[in-house]
Amino acid sequence: MQKVILIDRNNKRIGTEEKIKAHKEGKLHRAFSVFVFNPEGKLLLQKRAKTKYHSGGLWSNTCCSHPAPGETTYQAARRRLKEEMGFECKLKKLFCFTYSVEFDNGLIENEYDYVFIGKVNDNQKIIPNPSEVEEYKWVSIEELKKDIKKNPNNYTYWMRAAFKELQKHI
Hints:
170 residues
């Protein structure tokens, strides 16, 4: 049973909760989003597996998840990048933001999201975990901006929100 770290509005840890229960009750918890770029400045996107507990089949940032109790957000981001996309790279925290959204299945994302960026070289081997990732692609920032504007429902809510802020930092 995976647990998430519950926090108050000041990002102070107030406890832990089973992940699905936290999402059913909309409890504020820590999360992270990773954006990995190649030398040409293209961003690695993943299409979430259809079997994911929400937002399956939607395009999203390189990887995202929640730190486990006793794990730093940075450690969790590196761990999940390896678990979801099959590679490692240095990550740098850019910013944090809070968002809340309710999904059609009744689950609620109420997250304090740490946003990390990373860079890889041209010959980086991507080995996606099929239980997490349906497919992946590299896209330019301009391509992504245009497609999000044209087809916002093809992308996860948090990716759209983080990407909007990310553009101010890159």
